[in-house]
Amino acid sequence: MTSELEQELKHLIIDTLELEDVTPEDIDPDEPLFVEGLGLDSIDALELGLALQKRYGIKLESDSDETRHHFRNLRTLAALVEERRTA
Amino acid sequence: MTTPAMMYVHDWRAWQPGRRDTSQPRLSVAEKPAGGHVPAMLRRRLTGIGRALCDMLAELDADADCPLLYASRHGDGERTLEMLNTLAEEAPLSPARFGLSVHNAIPGVYSIGRGNRRTQQAIAASGDEFAALLVEAQGYLAQGEPTVILAFADQAIPARFAAHFTPPVETAAVALRVSSTPAHDAWALTPRPLTSDDTAEDSPQPSDLIDWLCGARDELHCHRPRQAWSLVRAE
């Protein structure tokens, strides 16, 4: 079951990271986003961090264990947005 | 006495969207080149010209084992201008766009995508790119490289600056496989001294080279910039 916010984040990831061959259905909420799973890289992490700041007003440390945790998969990302969004 | 040929063009590929002479099998006029030889996760970061170059390089260097000399006068002017505008607004830059704003971005993505670990060079030479490419190629061949790939690409100047460039810059990319070894169907590139009959012509841009390769012009002259060095001892 995918929440509305998770669906929104899927679109944000696809649009921001220009994932031209990926559809929202391809992103499994429990699969890793980075390296394995979806296969995003370190530049994507920076790009996604910027998108979260622009869209939801969330600021993250670029290289902290906490950020690694939030970026693990779509569910952890949605939990972060739920908790910290200001916009 | 004729000067021996400096190098031979063994094969070539070109891309120029919208060009008419589509019967030439080595020329692509596709509006959206496939970039199919580069994995999708890398390809997404390339624009049309980068994808076209990756397609051409994969065909000219199937084993991805040749040095690559790449030249572009202006690089990606539209994206550079977009980033400058973003900076002027004091807004954050896109990390992905910034990461690919270097002059060697396309050769870099190509080398990762194809696993080519040979030497690469990215050149900008104020309009004398083709001459610079030939000089660099001469160096690699003289050092014993059997084959070198030359890539020459440019894109239309952003509208804001276009008035400063006559003739206008055409969006086009061309790649040549050159070698110091002749072959019956290879074309020779031969240097000669400048004569008083040589008039100052505009240096060739990628679309001029494609005109010549496709037979739309008989000759292509490429003057090296007249440069002189003076070494002066400090007093």
TrEMBL record, chain A:
Name the domain of life: Bacteria
* Domain Carrier residues, every copy: 3-85
Record-given protein name: Acyl carrier protein
> Can you name the source organism?
Chromohalobacter japonicus
Automatic annotation (TrEMBL), chain B:
User: Which top-rank group of organisms is this from?
Assistant: Bacteria
Every copy of the Beta-ketoacyl synthase-like N-terminal domain together lies at 12-230
Q: InterPro entries from the xrefs?
A: Ketoacyl_synth_N
Query: Which Pfam families does the entry link to?
Result: Ketoacyl-synt_2
Q: This chain belongs to which protein, by name?
A: Beta-ketoacyl synthase-like N-terminal domain-containing protein
